[in-house]
Amino acid sequence: MQTPYVKRVYEDLQRKNANEKEFLQAAYEILESLEPYVKKHPELEKNKILERFVEPERFVQFRVAWIDDKGEVQVNRGYRVQYNSSIGPYKGGLRFHPSVNASIIKFLGLEQVLKNSLTSLPMGGGKGGSDFDPKGKSDHEIMSFCQAFMTELYRHIGEDTDVPAGDIGVGAREVGYLYGQYKRIQNKTVGVLTGKGIPFGGSLVRKEATGFGLCYFTEEALKVMKEDSFKKKTVLVSGSGNVAIYACKKAIELGATVVAMSDSNGYIYDKTGIKLELIQEIKEGRRGRIQEYIEKVPTASYHEGAKGIWQIPCDIALPCATQNELDLEDAKVLVQNGVIAVCEGANMPSTLEAAKYFIEHKVVYGPAKAANAGGVATSGLEMCQNSARLSWSFEEVDAKLKKIMVQIFHNTYHTAKSLGNSFDTLTGANIAGFDKVAKAMLALGVY
Ligand code: NDP
Questions:
Q1: What is the pLDDT of residues 281-314, one digit of tens each?
Q2: pLDDT-based confidence at 437, cuts 50/70/90?
Q3: pLDDT tens digits for 378-403?
Q4: Which residues line the pocket of ligand 1, CB cutoff 6 A?
Q5: Whose alpha carbon is nearest atom 41 of ligand 1?
Q6: What is the pTM of this model?
Q7: What are the residue numbers of the active site?
Q8: Assigned fold of 4-188
Q9: By three-state DSSP, how is residue 89 classified?
Q10: What CATH architecture does domain 209-366 belong to?
Q11: Spans of all domains in the chain
């Protein structure tokens, strides 16, 4: 970090948020990459745009008390950060995971502001969630928690104010319970949440969107940057949740062989190619563990520890589990094994050192805020359908998603190229996303 203004903003943030590791990590990565843009735009410093950009417009923390199946009262903490609404209503998912805290929610919220801008749809950035752990909870307990969570959250959200969606631990079931409670309290049927079930206002392709979008982005990047494609490539996909499953599906459809997937306990390796229907049966069907895969597939092996997945030789790596799952050591192994593309389905899965290593070694690198924007883009399309009281066909939504992902790649790539390094998509994505937000903030006056 060299620009005095940028450095000062970061140091101030560091002082105010000393214990928020993930938030500072994301803010550092973004601010450092904005330096060339800041140098060209003195009006940013004059109007304190960076200071305002890193400070959330609103941060809400609340108590969520609910009753478990034994009749005992449980208490969790809920959050919603309404980060930036300069280009549209706050938009971003809810994460239910025991690791959730203010730092995680703020890092995700800040990333979301730029991601949503990149989609070209009018959506501001937000994020939320709870330290509630859905693992091992009965269906009834999940419903009780979701109802208690929404009983507090409803007063802060609205179809034109703030529209949450899913993330880790929040899928169609949870969105259903959350939306049901919102409707009950407000007596309104509006598109206040996305990722809804198809019978009650959801959009086709939303379930598949992040994973499919990731592959559309990667396919276009391979074409433009390496004159190549997914065809006949060996692919690693970390995670086995919503993003991972549909990234795997599309990669296979595009002609690749996915040889490994993981969950937080370990990974499976199947050199003949992962049988995705079995993963779906285990994960989507009965919320089981990935280890169960080897009981039915003799060619597969299971290995404890999720991080080991990056040791497997591959052409393309798609990290789709969680933040910081791929560090510099993993990046070195991947490059040594000849990886040509690493595109991120999860949010901030690569550490900054790992990302920079990929860029230096001319690997096609798809930073999360560009490569995984397909989920929120399709959420934007769900909002359009809800407002117009329409339902588009699968093909129609899929075609729009593909168009958006191709456009996000080109916007990212051309911005990087104009700055002198077409492989530096990290800088490209941050500056392309920030440009629109900064212009909107300047135009809207001081707030
Ligand atoms: P899910 O809850 O559906 O799946 C998460 C997956 O990641 C599970 O397989 C989980 O395993 C695994 N996982 C969680 N923590 C770890 C860990 N510490 N190490 C290894 N694996 C882990 O979530 P999603 O698929 O929705 O989200 C995955 C990522 O994608 C997140 O970073 C999310 O923010 C991002 N994302 C999601 C979008 C969406 O539309 N859903 C949109 C854009 C980004 P286990 O079951 O063992 O916990």
A1: 999 999 999 999 999 999 999 999 999 999 999 9
A2: very high
A3: 999 999 999 999 999 999 999 999 99
A4: 166-169, 171, 210, 239-244, 262-265, 306, 320-322, 325, 345-347, 372, 375
A5: 167
A6: 0.97
A7: 127
A8: Rossmann fold (3.40.50)
A9: coil
A10: 3-Layer(aba) Sandwich (3.40)
A11: 4-188, 209-366
